[in-house]
TrEMBL record:
It comes from the Bacteria. SMART domains: HTH_MARR. The keyword Transcription applies. The keyword Transcription applies. GO terms for biological process: response to stress. This is MarR family transcriptional regulator. The lineage of its organism: Bacteria, Pseudomonadati, Pseudomonadota, Alphaproteobacteria, Hyphomicrobiales. It comes from Aquamicrobium defluvii. It holds the Pfam family MarR_2. InterPro entries: HTH_MarR-typ, MarR/SlyA-like, WH-like_DNA-bd_sf, WH_DNA-bd_sf. Residues 4-137 form the HTH marR-type domain.
Amino acid sequence: MDAGEQFAVELARVSRQWRKRIDERLRHLDLTQARWMVLLQLSRMGAPVSQRELADIVGVEGPTLVRVLDNLERQGLVERRACNADRRVKLIELAQGAGPVIAEIGRIAAGLRQELLEGVPAGELERARELLKIIADRLESGPRG
């Protein structure tokens, strides 16, 4: 296995295990990975977003997102409303009661991040971030041939 392949394997392993650990720590909030990811994206956006845009951002198919939103709506964490410009479009936004849940997700994620990155020099983290940004930018620019 060459260095690039080893890197890809480790990156996938870290990503999978990190999400698994957060899932375990958020279980008491009745939040699956799909639910907390939607909540975090909505909180970062700060404005209502269409279901289609949200599905693209989160990386799921429309029907999958509908089920996630149904559950979040039942939990009182998101609201759906018709768009004034196009009544066929549903806009999604955080419900008023979502604030404490978002804060708890942030607290738990920060604690895990601190735990996992403890002792790693800031310079190494910055170099790793730069490398991941290069890879992400290439992935987002689309196919290269």
